[in-house]
Amino acid sequence: DVQSHLTGPSVSSQAGVTVWQVALPGPLFRLFSYGIPEGMHPVSGARVRVPFGRGQRVGILWRPTTPEREVSLKYVDALLDTGSLLDAPLLACLEWAASYYHFPLGEVALAAFPPALRKGQVLSQPGMRLTDAGRRALEDGGIRGSRQRELLMALAEQPLGVAESALMHFPRATRQGVVQRGWAEFLTLPLGATFSDDLSAASIQPLSLNTAQASAVSAISADMSRFRVWLLDGVTGSGKTEVYLSLIARVLTAGKQVLVLVPEIALTPQLVSRFALRLGAAPVVLHSALTDAERLQAWLAAQSGRASVVVGTRSAAFQPLANLGLVIVDEEHDASLKQSEGFGFHARDVVIWRARAQEVPVVLGSATPSLESLRNAQMNRYETLFLPERAKGARMPVLNLIDVRGQRMSGGLSPVLIEAIERHLVAGGQALLYLNRRGYAPNLLCHDCGWVAACRHCDAFMTWHRQSRRLKCHHCGEEQSVPETCPVCRSELSPRGLGTEQLEDVLAGLFPDFGIERLDRDALSRKGELARRLARIRAGDARLIVGTQIVVKGHDFPDVSLVGVVDADQGLFANDFRGSERFAQQLTQVAGRAGRADRPGTVLVQTHHPDHPGLNLLLRSGYGAYAAQLLRERAEAGLPPLRFSALIRADGRDAPAPRHLLDTMASGLSTADWVGLSVWGPVEAPLARRAGRFRYQLLLLADDRALLHDALAHLDAWIGSRRPSGVRWSIDVDPLDM
Ligand code: ADP
Ligand code: ZN
Ligand code: ZN
Predict the structure, then answer these.
(1) Do the Cβ atoms of 416 and 402 come closer than 8 Å?
(2) Which SUPFAM superfamilies match (predicted)?
(3) Beta carbon of 270 within 6 Å of any ligand 1 atom
(4) Which of 173, 248, 346, 701 is least surrounded by CB atoms within 10 angstroms?
(5) Of all atoms in ligand 1, which is nearest to the CA of residue 330?
């Protein structure tokens, strides 16, 4: 805490002492001043170890400041880096992000570092290097000991030096022996210094671009030394990736780096291998499944400028890059680019800020652009480039509704859909069934007394996972074994509703002669499992695919000729205002999996609401027309992106406290001082109780950003000061989940 930081054994400040502000992890919205001992050479963006409270913390030197005479000052214990790890535009971006997202700067700043560096790992290590004498000895063949020769050969492969940690399979005596003979030397190596990507050996030739692709590439590459945001609005299969690759190749020729943000790398193994084949070397990949050591290596390769192409998920938005030349955000509409808990940044918006500061162009790609980006394009802040047709000449799929009212359904499938699946399978195609609900059944209930398996900690039912014989809460992770009979009346329990596991069973019963693969989050629990399933699908060993949202994310299944949307009604009546946008994006994306190659595609959408105007507009006129309609509705209702929003969430173990906190905030903001600000709520969160905590939310809507941020700054003053015990609360700026 602040007090113990300022007292304790410390040195009084004197004239002439250098004092720096340091960003430290923790919940406080401020920087901390520390003295710099003589002989230390401080620089912005280098890490320091400082005394804090009773312990030590790793922080980041931010900027020099003038010492305050009255305050006694503590000194930095150690400077961990000799130079800055963060460039000036990134430091500025972190400061902007902290204030824009109303999150403590110390926490935000640490988001730019991999875990190893946050913990204070130093960036040098003991290593060995071959000497000239050693090289000559190798050439002359005059080395007797075979271990020594092996060691020298290993060193010869990396002239800059090899970390000793990578040489531990050679006995210590061997390592010391070659140094004593003058064939090698010990030295201190910078970590990551040996990375190099060899881009010379592209193994596939670029495709010749079609007219739309070529004009997009030439528009963007006409001036690459200027900030501009391009919205690449291209239908599914229109060859957006080919456009990216073509632009990347140009940037690499100019010797610069490209940052590519994608929603989830684990889900798109195809993208990374396609990049590798086209560009000659694997891009450096940054995502959360890496080990700390792997992550550090990737970070260093990107930070030093040695990695030419860096592909990452949202956290890569803060990756330092020595030599940035272009930013690409693929699937820019995807909600996973926004972090919804804690530091609630949107990776797309962060990289746009950085690109502006660094005079670098940004390409936002999507077949279903977010309303935010469409609005920015309308306002001429972004420039739109259309790819209206599929690249390989394939036609866009035909979409049709199936009215399932009164139909005899078999496991959620209408006779029309079953018949269509059969027809496509017999014709040699693949069929993809989309159902956005994993597990066997979303409920397990007693038909006699009405008991339903519910989560003890949440206002939610437990999903029955039959294969793993568990009941799971998809909100808090609670798991239980499945009761044999009703715990109340001992009757039989039966499933209600349809999940992907059950759909897989139903299809296996109907079409026993065709393999099935299921693509949902449960299928990702083991490493390599997704790749294995995708391979079976690509090879045609599985002709039926059952999938949740994951399948809609960018997979290319050339033989899928039929897509069945099993339950469109699930998305039709969402309880927040972004529901229809999200639904239209998912439907368009999943429909886009059909007919990508030679086989024409059909999409069948099952619904109980065949007259739903939105659904009909979407199917008849496409995503663009539907999105334009949604934008008009948002304007009429005074909602984002026409106005600016923030969501205040509060939760606590007993219901009144969080609600009371938000009530007080709401009344503090609804006075005459806040003209142009609307305060909605507080209301219960959509999931009113999660993991044992009662949840409420307050939505702020403002006519302009400045007003919204004034209001939020007003609330920031609450942090730490008036927080009732046990209540957690947070600010989510530009919220997507509500
Ligand atoms: P998107 O990213 O827009 O969904 P992709 O870049 O994956 O589209 O392209 C879809 C398919 O079309 C891929 O199989 C790709 O190899 C192919 N393709 C893209 N551009 C061309 C082109 N100019 N000529 C031939 N095939 C192309
Ligand atoms: Zn019962
Ligand atoms: Zn739960």
Answers:
(1) yes
(2) P-loop containing nucleoside triphosphate hydrolases
(3) no
(4) 173
(5) 2
Crossing angle for the helix pair 211-221 and 240-253, nearest 10 degrees?
40
Residue 592 CA: nearest ligand 1 atom is 4
Phi-psi label, residue 193: left if phi above 0, alpha if psi -120 to 50, beta otherwise:
alpha
CB distance 556 to ligand 1 below 6 Å: yes
Give nearest CA residue, ligand 1 atom 11.
Answer: 237
* Residue 489 assigned to a binding site: yes
Q: Which of 109, 60, 56 is nearest to 81 (CA)?
A: 60
Enter the ipTM.
Answer: 0.97
243 Cα nearest atom in ligand 1: 6
* Position 265, amino acid: I
| Confidence (pLDDT) at 142 | 74
Q: Is the CB of 368 under 6 A from ligand 1?
A: no
Residue 476 is assigned to a ligand binding site: yes
The predicted model scores a pTM of: 0.88
Output the residue whose Cα is nearest ligand 1's atom 10. 237
Report the nearest-CA residue for atom 25 of ligand 1: 392
Residues 124/191, Cβ–Cβ less than 8 Å: yes
Determine whether the annotation assigns residue 455 to a binding site: yes
Tell me the two tokens of residue 29: 């919205």
Question: Which atom of ligand 1 sits closest to the CA of residue 210?
Answer: 23
The CA-based angle 253-257-260, given to 5 degrees, is 115
State the DSSP H helix or E strand holding residue 354, giving kind and residue range, or none if neither.
Answer: helix 347-358
Q: Which among 254, 196, 199, 262 is positioned nearest to 223, based on CA atoms?
A: 254
Query: Residue 264 in 3-state DSSP?
Result: coil
- 58 within 8 A of 120, measured Cβ to Cβ: yes
**Exposure class string for 601-625: b at 16+ Cβ within 10 A, else e:** bbbbbbbebeebebbebbbeebbbe
Give residue 4's pLDDT: 37
Greatest Cα-to-Cα distance within the chain, rounded to the nearest angstrom:
90
Rounded CA-CA distance 363/328 in Å is: 5
pLDDT band at 86 (very low <50, low <70, confident <90, very high): very high
DSSP conformation letters of 618-687: HHHHHHHHHHHHHHHHHHHHT-TTTSEEEEEEEEESSSHHHHHHHHHHHHHHSSTT-TTEEEEEEEEEEE
Question: How much is the pLDDT for 214?
Answer: 97
Sole residue written with tokens 């044999």: 484
Query: Which is more confident, 160 or 578?
Result: 578
Q: Which of 734, 729, 732 is nearest to 27 (CA)?
A: 729
449 marked as part of a ligand binding site: yes
